[in-house]
Amino acid sequence: MSDTASAARTGLLAHPMTPAWVLALAVCLTQFDVTAAAVALPAIRGELGFTLAATAWVMDAYSLAFAGTLFAAGALADRFGRRRILLLGNAGFALASLACGLAWDGPSLWLARAAQGAMSALFITGALATTSLSYPMAAPDLRARAFGIVGVTGGAAMALGPTLGGLIAGEFGWRWIFLLNLPICAVNEWAVRRVIAETRDDAGRPLDLTGVALLTLAIALPVQALLHEGSAIWRWSGVALGAVMAVLLAFQQRGRSQPMLDVALFTRRAPLGIIALLFSISAGYWAMLVYLPLWLQATHDLDIRSTGFAMLAATLPMLALPPLGVRLTRVYGWRANFTGGMLLLAVGMAALAAAAVLKTDLFWALAAMMVAASGAGLSNSQISGALVAQAAAERAGMASALATVLRQSGFAIGIALLGAISAGVGYGPGFAAAALAALLGAMAAAFCLPRQI
After folding, report:
1. Helix (H, G, I), strand (E, B) or coil at 136
2. Considering only CA atoms, which of 414, 368, 440 is closest in space to residue 227?
3. What whole-number distance in Å separates Cα of residue 11 and Cα of residue 385?
4. Cα 247–Cα 250–Cα 255 angle in degrees, nearest 5
5. Are residues 222 and 299 in the same domain?
6. Which of 191, 223, 255 is the last residue of a domain?
7. What are the tens digits of pLDDT across the range 151-200?
């Protein structure tokens, strides 16, 4: 019996796809935590007595730390080993999740969420780098299957996060959304140590602390200014100062022999259009997901479980429609698919804004959510790949990291902007702003992108 079990375990661990499934579990956990936490925001707000701006910081603290740490995580993984950084991120994420579950006020929760974001950057960087090295270009079929496993499980985690998060929070309380990460992190630790081999690059990229600081300030200053309950002058001064930090970052990167950002991508029309798309879909769709649970519970009197199921209208199309988006791109081209997808997102968000202002019944709200999510689902999964395709082959990894940073930056700034617009006037104007962001993305795709990339 023991020999049979041992042989079965050895066979499972020796399967060529086992590393992919182990690494997918790591990615899955961080993706689940984003959308699951969003559905718990009303409960967090009620228990800790948050304003709308304070509630937004629960998500933005995570995104800012993630975006600011990502490039540094890549350099650390190259220097100290990808598996080691993955395990460090896993252990740190577990401790940060424990701190989230035990948080007693706003600052303690925001600090814990920031730690989660930073550890997620280590986690994701180690997992994706290890996936790439475990399945090299020389084995294209295995490589495609491995990244497919990681991508599909991550997408499923994000799509089902609100529903599962609502069930967990409704049954046990919102703190258990974070505390249940602990046993999963323990499984991650066990599996990674047994399946994943260590790799490092002694001649890897240097750690650019100045660049990391400028990048973090370029994102954090606008977010802080938009969420600060002060005068319009204060808010726009913070946004302008963030833009100055972004310009300084560009000059600083241009002068480095091994930059962490490919500044040349910001000087060509097609990459600029794709960058605008990344910001637009993050602000027009992903940031909207943060405010939907708050609106659904406040306007339609849903409990947290019902809210989780209602959120499926805004998440399931993101899981189901990417294959259709790929086929449409093959037939009609990148420009047509991205323009059409972003226009559909804009229509859905405009309908949702109308539903919020007119106080329509829940059916119309769910229909608008589904239309918006369908537009995002046709475009979202392909935008990062389009940016990578614009970079030189030797800079593909940098372009992929840049796409992730731009997504998180757009998410953080979008949350802050929609929160600033919605504060005191209701969610309708915030949803209208998301529709405008999607419309600007459609215009960027129509005027900046070639038919094929």
Report:
1. coil
2. 414
3. 34
4. 135
5. no
6. 255
7. 777 778 877 888 899 999 999 999 999 999 999 999 989 988 888 878 77
Q: Is 421 found in the same domain as 319? A: yes
pTM metric for this prediction: 0.87
The answer to whether the CB of 39 falls within 8 A of the CB of 166 is yes
Residue-wise pLDDT for 188-200, tens only, equals 899 888 888 787 7
Q: Return the number of other C-beta atoms located less than 10 Å from residue 399's C-beta.
A: 22
Write out the residue range of the structural domain in which residue 68 sits: 12-203
Task: Give the CA angle between residues 283, 38, 160 to the nearest 5°.
Answer: 100
| Domains in the chain, number | 3
Q: Which residues contact 352 (CB under 8 A, 6 or more apart)?
A: 288, 365, 368, 369, 372, 431, 435
DSSP string, 327-386: HHHHHH-HHHHHHHHHHHHHHHHHHHHHHHHHT--HHHHHHHHHHHHHHHHHHHHHHHHH
Higher-confidence residue of 141 and 430: namely 430
* Claim to verify: residue 233 and residue 371 sit in the same structural domain: no
DSSP run (H or E) holding 158? helix 140-172
Tens of pLDDT along 107-116? 999 999 999 9
Contacts of 26 (CB under 8 A, 6+ apart): 86, 90, 123, 124, 126, 127, 188, 192
Among 18, 13, 43, CA closest to 298: 43
* Whether 356 contacts 247, CB under 8 Å: no
Residue with tokens 């504060």: 423
214 and 322 in a common domain:
no
Going by C-alpha positions, the residue among 196, 252, 243 that lies closest to residue 71 is 252
Nearest to residue 71, comparing CAs of 13, 129, 145? 129
Query: pLDDT class for 204, splitting at 50, 70, 90?
Result: low
Tokens encoding 97: 């999740």
